[in-house]
Write a structure and sequence with these properties.
The chain is an alpha/beta fold. The chain has a domain of 216 residues: 3-Layer(aba) Sandwich (Rossmann fold). The chain is built from nine helices and 13 strands. The strands form four sheets. Strands 3-2-1-4-5-6-11 form a seven-stranded parallel beta sheet, sandwiched between helices. Strands 7-10 form a two-stranded parallel ribbon. It has a two-stranded parallel sheet with strand order 8-13. Helix 4 links the parallel strand 5 and strand 6. Helix 7 packs across helix 9. It is globular, with a radius of gyration of 19 Å. The termini are far apart. The structure holds nicotinamide-adenine-dinucleotide (NAD) and uridine-5'-diphosphate (UDP) (2 copies). Nicotinamide-adenine-dinucleotide binds next to helix 1, helix 3 and strand 5.
Length: 313
């Protein structure tokens, strides 16, 4: 395999740190760029002394000049709590970040992968979601800064591809979980695990009948790396686990595995919360020979182990 010089924006975050680790272990040079909004140094501390690893503190809404041949653009808060904290900053990160990273890719002729999202489908009226479904997104709601930001980023990727021949890959990531999510991240898997381990009430938003499909981080990273390597796969490509669960089922599984005494409590459903979500991964199977291998129970056990240790510290 050819040794590459790889930039990972958002590299100190949950997914980014796993990707840094994977690419370092394969012998590549990795530049991790992050402004530490939701990412932390602890996620990549074990890589800091590595001679093929570099850390750059930078915000992707500002231009960046580096010489690389592969770019994974992951910089953007992903949890609703974090992306709604400063909605204007979130959309700037997606849009201005995409412009700068595409400008960089164009100048140095790097291949660039965009971490897009199942949120481009909004509250989907087609189920499961295939890549040719255009989505059902509210342009003016509290989730729009993220959803529309990611949609514009996809548009920019395709326009830079058509106009400037930039070598793009667009990956639509469905809910992913695993070690290195922050305990205060606000997303459902980490919330429920931390609540269960602390014996606190488990907060179900709405009646808990909405569904999500949860992918374990190792499977996701494998899909991401395969998409980057695929020669003629610009995408968009769904990467996620088609196993679909209600949020109540997720809570029950977490309680069962942790043996917690926590009770389920109901909280108001935030507006525009998608009712259901499940990826159709036919394209990823055919193009990348990829499919997830880790079942929800198995992934939860590993994630719960991580949080048990983390909470003790
Ligand atoms: P995360 O919040 O852990 O990671 C995001 C990283 O980006 C953090 O390290 C953060 O500090 C950094 N960042 C944010 N704004 C930045 C900016 N302006 N400049 C530089 N760095 C910035 O989230 P994650 O789950 O690791 O998500 C990574 C990417 O994958 C995001 O783009 C997200 O939208 C996408 N994604 C994730 C999921 C998922 O379920 N985890 C699903 C769909 C899409
Ligand atoms: N850019 C960057 N790094 C580079 C090249 C470009 O950050 O190595 C930024 C540049 O500042 C510009 C954006 O990317 O704002 C888009 O670049 P492009 O060349 O497409 O646009 P132009 O410079 O013509 O506006
Ligand atoms: N959710 C919940 N309790 C929580 C956090 C989230 O019931 O403590 C619900 C949320 O309303 C949504 C689902 O779990 O229906 C997934 O939420 P998350 O924030 O993880 O991701 P997204 O909504 O972006 O898929």
């Amino acid at each position: 395999m050819q040794r590459r010089r790889i930039l990972i924006t958002g590299g100190a975050g949950f997914l980014g740190s796993h990707l840094c680790e994977r690419l370092i272990s394969e012998g590549h040079d990795v530049i991790c760029l992050d402004n530490f909004f939701t990412g932390v140094k602890d996620n990549i501390r074990h890589l800091l002394d590595h001679n093929r690893f570099e850390l750059v503190r930078h915000d992707v809404t500002f231009p960046v000049y580096l010489e690389v041949d592969r770019i994974y653009n992951l910089a953007c808060p992903a949890s609703p709590v974090h992306y709604q904290y400063n909605a204007v900053k979130t959309i700037k990160t997606s849009v201005m970040g995409a412009i700068n990273i595409l400008g960089l890719a164009k100048r140095v002729r790097a291949r660039v992968l965009q971490a897009s999202t199942s949120e481009v489908y909004g509250d989907p009226s087609v189920h499961p979601q295939r890549e040719d479904y255009w989505g059902n997104v509210n342009p003016v709601g509290i989730r729009s800064c993220y959803d529309e930001g990611k949609r514009v980023a996809e548009t920019l990727f395709f326009d830079y591809h058509r106009m400037n021949g930039v070598d793009i890959r667009v990956m639509r990531i469905f809910n992913t979980y695993g070690p290195r999510m922050r305990p205060d991240d606000g997303r459902v898997v980490s919330n429920f695990i931390v609540q269960a381990l602390r014996g606190e009430d488990i907060t179900l938003f709405g009646d808990g009948s909405q569904t999500r499909s949860f992918c374990y981080v190792d499977d996701l990273i494998e899909g991401m790396v395969r998409l980057m390597r695929c020669e003629d796969c610009i995408g968009p490509v769904n990467i996620g686990n088609p196993g679909e669960f209600t949020i109540r089922e997720l809570a029950e599984k977490v309680i069962e595995i942790t043996g917690s005494t926590s009770k389920l409590v109901y909280r108001p459903l935030p507006s525009d919360d998608p009712r259901q979500r499940q990826p159709d991964i036919t394209l990823a199977r055919e193009m990348l020979g990829w499919e997830p291998g880790v079942k929800l129970e198995e992934g939860l056990v590993k994630t719960i182990e991580y949080f048990r240790e983390f909470i003790k510290q």
